[in-house]
Amino acid sequence: MKGRVLIADDDSRLLACYAALLQCEDFEVQTAVSAVSAIAALESAEFDLVITDMAMETETAGYDVACAAQRLSHRPEVIVFTSFDIPSAEWKTHGVKELLTKGQTTMAAVSAAINRVFDESVCRRSPLQAGADQGCKTAAYYS
């Protein structure tokens, strides 16, 4: 297993699609259909990465999930999927590492972004061990 990922989205078809993609890439995946259930999952298990839709119960529910992740001692990285344009200055202040726009991103780009954020997270958490054991990759590797 590469790492543990929590995916939150109120669209069950997208949730299943993202989960299948990540499971094929050797991630252990847990899904949540709302921000409330994602926050509950974060409180009961440890994840390496959190992927959340922005608009679920509210138009900014994804920020609630991101804030809950940032309060944890191990602080998993957060990626937000959205249908709306959000300025980077806004989403970055909420602890979001990457924002992907639904309908404008291919599955290959989604996969590359998720793997890049995950790999950067591994390197950040234990730079000496990760660099030697995981083969830390730079941003240029993913370009």
Can you offer a commentary on this structure?
Strand 1, helix 1 and strand 2 (27-32) form a beta-alpha-beta unit. It is built from seven helices and five strands, in the order βαβαβαβαβααα. It is globular, with a radius of gyration of 14 Å. The protein has 143 residues and is α/β, with parallel strands linked by helices.
Quickly list its features.
5-stranded parallel β-sheet, disordered C terminus, 143 residues, Rossmann fold, alpha/beta
Lay out the secondary structure.
Blueprint: E1 3-8, H1 12-24, E2 27-32, H2 35-44, E3 49-53, H3 61-70, E4 77-82, H4 88-92, E5 98-101, H5 107-125, H6 127-133, H7 139-142
Helix pairs in contact: 2-3, 5-6
CATH class annotation = Alpha Beta
Spell the H/E element sequence: EHEHEHEHEHHH
Q: Give the overall average pLDDT.
A: 83
Bin the strand percentage: 15-25%
Q: By CATH's scheme, which homologous superfamily applies?
A: Response regulator
Radius of gyration: 14 Å
Query: What's the end-to-end separation, in Å?
Result: 25 Å
Question: Which term fits the overall shape?
Answer: globular
Reported CATH architecture:
3-Layer(aba) Sandwich
